[in-house]
Design brief:
This is Monooxygenase. GO terms for molecular function: FAD binding; monooxygenase activity. Residues 9-352 form the FAD-binding domain. The protein is of the alpha/beta class. It folds into 2 domains: 10-79 and 103-186 and 277-361, FAD/NAD(P)-binding domain, CATH 3.50.50; 191-274, Alpha-Beta Plaits. It has 11 helices and 19 strands. It has helices at 19-30, 57-66, 70-76, 115-128, 173-177, 243-246, 249-259, 308-327, 332-365, 369-381, 386-394, and strands at 10-15, 35-38, 54-56, 83-88, 91-97, 110-112, 132-134, 139-145, 148-153, 158-166, 182-186, 191-197, 207-214, 220-227, 230-236, 268-274, 277-281, 291-293, 299-300. Strands 1, 2, 7, 8, 9, 10 and 18 form a 7-stranded mixed sheet that branches. It has a 7-stranded mixed sheet with strand order 5-4-13-14-15-12-16, sandwiched between helices. Helix 1 (19-30) links the parallel strand 1 (10-15) and strand 2 (35-38). The structure holds flavin-adenine dinucleotide. Residues 15-21, 38-41, 49, 51-54, 115, 138-139, 167-169, 173, 193, 295-296, 303, 306, 308-310, 312, 410 line the site of flavin-adenine dinucleotide (FAD).
Length: 410
């Protein structure tokens, strides 16, 4: 143990049973560390929207190693679309179909399914592992000291732990309890995001399509992404749009009919409109190196490039590794160094992801003469010079590669 004098009820308390909190608990369980999850919502909650549909191979690998079979269960219940297509003002400028799903170790490059299913499978794994989840009892206060953490919940329960992990999402109580604050920016444009139910008979071809200046929806950018059972339609509002008006049922049905097809008009399952935040907490660990922030408790990125849940799962994996090492350290300084290291490495990863998602956003929102001219010239050149079309296809998702985080396209 790390030299603490406190009698801990459990080595690690995790706040939040979202995908990142559950992954943290599973990754710790796989390393022999016991945890308790405290969740604010009731167990029978309804989580809206398809959200993190693009699950990257690094995420699948982490889930598979944390709970054997879990990564494969996501793959078996997801889809792998094999074609990327881009159009510019009604004309195709790029198309590529991949002969195989790529990936390694028996897991493909990605899979695509609604986040609620991913969470359902994670919860099954959590229950199979015997990890306790206390529903409907959110964390209210977190007090850390050199010796450990005291967590109090809404119902007045108190938990003493060696360490606590804040996986309690964007409005994290744990983040504010350790005095860490978000800073960053917000997208200028709003985006309308809708989930559409697919037909079992004669479904559309499963391909990811980006359409620049779509002529049927007054020149707005449109992204169509398939996932198991449905489609994500993502429409970038113009500066002059009223997003409230555009996200009304009738308007969305019209936008969907014009982009996905008339027969999808009445298949809208969920709609939302967003301005995307690009923010990072100023620190991901508390002053005593006893509390760690993971996932959206620590950072929010625009979704282009699918860095949300994927980078949160990478946080969870790193947190589990560092916590396990800290808990088995004989020297307190060594334990502290592990947690400090988590704070540094994942802050750097978050900064990388924020920059990458920011690059995608800047590109999508860019309406300077130079940016517009570059897109226009690339579209002109695309029929004769494939890299120009490929650039148009790639740019809306930001750069590939980067820190040991999961970068993908959705
Ligand atoms: C439209 C949209 C599209 C997206 N697309 C993608 C994508 O394609 N790929 C991708 O990777 N990501 C995507 N994301 C992001 C993804 O949904 C989030 O990154 C992910 O849900 C974050 O997981 P989390 O566990 O950190 O937080 P959450 O999912 O928010 O979970 C936090 C949990 O903590 C609980 N909680 C809150 N307060 C407390 C408290 N005080 N005590 C205890 N529990 C508490 C909450 O009830 C919740 O269960 C998308 C998001 C949106 C909105």
């Amino acid at each position: 143990m790390s030299g603490s004098d406190v009698q801990a009820d459990v080595p690690v308390v995790v706040a939040g049973a979202g995908p990142v909190g559950m992954t943290t608990a599973l990754a710790l369980h796989a390393r022999g560390v016991e945890t308790t999850i405290l969740e604010a919502d009731p167990k029978d909650r309804d989580r809206p929207g398809s959200r993190a549909i693009y699950v990257h191979k690094d995420t699948l690998r982490t889930l598979e190693t944390s709970s054997p079979g879990l990564g494969h269960r996501l793959v078996d219940n997801g889809i792998i679309w094999d074609t990327r297509r881009t159009l510019f003002r009604g004309r195709e400028v790029f198309e590529r179909t991949y002969p195989d799903p790529g990936g390694d170790g028996g897991l493909p490059h990605f899979t695509s399914l609604p986040q609620v299913w991913t969470e359902e499978y994670m919860l099954d794994a959590v229950q199979d592992a015997g990890i306790e989840v206390h529903w409907d009892d959110g964390v209210e206060t977190v007090e850390s000291s050199e010796d450990g953490v005291r967590v109090e919940t809404e119902s007045g329960e108190t938990y003493h732990a060696e360490y606590a992990v804040g996986a309690d999402g964007a409005g994290s109580t744990v983040r504010s309890e350790i005095g860490s604050e978000f800073s960053g920016t917000q997208s200028e444009n709003s985006f309308i995001i809708a989930d559409i139910d697919e037909f079992e008979d004669e479904p559309l071809k499963q391909e990811r399509v980006f359409h620049y200046d779509h002529p049927r929806v007054d020149g707005r950018n449109v992204l169509l992404v398939p996932f198991k059972g449905g489609w994500r339609v993502d429409i970038q509002c113009k500066d002059t749009d009223d997003p409230e008006y555009l996200s009304q049922d009738e308007q969305v049905a019209d936008l969907v009919a014009k982009t996905l097809g008339e027969r999808y008009r009445d298949r809208v399952d969920w709609v939302s409109q967003y301005k995307f935040k690009q923010v990072i907490a100023d620190t991901l660990v508390d002053e005593h190196n006893r509390v760690l922030l993971v996932g959206e408790a620590g950072h929010l990125f625009a979704p282009f490039g699918a860095r949300g849940m994927n980078s949160g799962v990478a946080d969870a994996d790193a947190a589990a590794t560092r916590l396990t090492a800290a808990l088995s350290a004989d020297v307190e300084d060594a334990a502290e160094a592990e947690i400090e290291h988590y704070g540094i490495e994942r802050l750097k990863a978050a900064q990388y992801n924020k920059r990458a998602a920011g690059q995608a956003l800047e590109y999508l929102q860019g309406d300077s003469v130079v940016t517009k001219a570059k897109k226009y010239l690339a579209a002109k050149a695309a029929p004769y010079y494939e890299p120009a079309g490929e650039w148009l296809d790639d740019a809306p998702y930001g750069p590939h590669g980067g820190p040991p985080v999961n970068i993908g396209q959705y």
